[in-house]
Design goal:
It contains 1 helix and 19 strands. By secondary structure, it is mainly β. The chain has a domain of 120 residues. The protein has an 18-stranded antiparallel beta barrel.
């Protein structure tokens, strides 16, 4: 581990000392009606996983690159983007059985960043005053990504083969998507590389300050024979989300969020179930500090099945240790609080910020104590490079095992 960290540190210092790329800016103007926006992005990451079980501790050093561009002509656009992930240090289970000479699963803890080269996005679109239409392989993030997101934390991004339309009428927004394939984070060598079916994503609402209200309906009809272990199963989810902010005077502000949804089996799902989703959060911004307290419940149908969100950016919820990517059948209740602080610029370190988060987990059905988790992060920029350090420490009670994870990453984009 010391050798890996030393190599990573040397690589990081070299990257930070090298000439900075041009800062992200406006697209290149080719003519009065034609622009070209180049895409060049990179992310170098070290991730370690230490779990109290028989698996070996994982250490992964991965590099993700994206390259492509978007050509726009009088409102019409063509975007093409390739994505590749390289495993520089591969002492980890990348979720693809048989990799690195092992006949079955690798004897390490999971880091779900397999080596991969793929077309990440390939889409055509049109954008006018009243809205937009996009067809092809595309990134879709709805609201806070709790139900539909791009799983941007992992090196291989989740995208969708879909047609999507967005319309805006004053404060009203309507967003409708029909997708035939969910392109997952697991890479082209995995049997779970894509999940096919008929996915209908409907989202719309009104923004009247200080409150914005959204309603949504997500109908997921996966094809039979998909290569996953019973999950995600087809489901239908209907819900509402309300959020807003109230100024308290000066720079102080009170933010709020509340959401409710109902999910049940759909189409060929062999399990007959229904479950509720409840979330509420209050946040305050005072003197540069950000304070949050919240509750999230992914309900259970008497321990038979639980509320699932298979399209979500799951790392952003229920702890960074990622122990609850699939909701246990007994459901999940997450009581959490956080404090963050922006320190501004400190010498060469720009936008220095820190955050600490606490989670208390328990079952929705039966009330079992799952455990608790502490998370912490530190981020800043040096020239055009974004640097992030993160740590997660999950202490198990009746669910999973004690888990500790650490990340160090550097990102750049043009």
């Amino acid at each position: 581990m010391k050798t890996t960290i030393s190599v990573l540190a040397a690589t990081s210092m070299f990257a930070l000392a090298s000439p900075a790329l041009a800062a992200p800016g406006a697209p290149i103007k080719v003519s009065d009606t034609v622009t070209f926006d180049p895409i060049v992005e990179g992310r170098l990451r070290y991730e370690s996983v230490d779990q109290d079980n028989a698996l070996k501790n994982a250490e992964a050093v991965t590099m993700r690159m994206r390259a492509g561009g978007e050509l726009t002509i009088s409102g019409f656009s063509l975007l093409a983007e390739a994505e590749g992930t390289l495993a520089i240090g591969d002492h980890y289970n990348d979720t693809i059985a048989g990799n690195n000479g092992y006949l079955g699963a690798e004897p390490y803890s999971v880091v779900a960043d397999p080596e991969n080269v793929e077309i990440n996005r390939l889409q055509i679109g049109y954008k006018g005053k009243g809205g937009s239409v996009t067809i092809g392989r595309q990134r879709i993030v709805l609201d806070n990504a709790r139900f539909v997101g791009n799983v941007g934390w992992r090196q291989n991004e989740q995208t969708f083969d879909a047609v999507r339309g967005i319309s805006k009428f004053g404060p009203v927004t309507l967003d409708a998507t029909y997708a035939i394939s969910q392109r997952t984070i697991f890479g082209v060598d995995s049997p779970r590389e894509h999940m096919d079916g008929n996915l209908i994503l409907l989202n719309g609402g009104i923004d009247i300050k200080p409150v914005a209200v959204k309603g949504f309906a997500y109908l997921l009809d996966y094809d039979k024979g998909q290569p996953f272990n019973s999950l995600p199963l087809s489901s239908k989810t209907f819900g509402v989300l309300a959020k807003g902010g109230i100024p308290l005077g000066g720079k102080a502000k009170l933010d709020f969020m509340a959401s409710y949804a109902r999910q049940s089996d759909y189409k060929d799902n062999p399990v007959d179930y229904s479950a509720d989703y409840i979330a509420a959060e209050l946040g305050a911004s005072v003197a540069g500090f950000g304070l949050k307290a919240g509750y999230e419940e992914l309900g259970s149908d008497h321990g038979l099945a639980a509320f699932q969100t298979p399209l979500a950016t799951l790392h952003a919820f229920n702890g960074w240790a990622d122990l609850f990517l699939t909701t246990p059948n007994a459901g999940l209740r997450d009581y959490y609080g956080s404090i963050g602080k922006g320190f501004g610029d400190l010498g060469p370190l720009k936008n220095l910020n820190a955050q600490v988060v606490y989670h208390k987990f328990e079952a929705d059905f039966g009330g079992a104590d799952y455990g608790e988790e502490w998370d912490a992060s530190l981020g800043f920029k040096v020239k055009n490079y974004s640097v992030l350090l993160k740590y997660a420490d999950y202490s198990a009670d009746t669910f999973s095992v004690d888990t500790r994870k650490f990340w160090f990453q550097i990102e750049f984009s043009y």
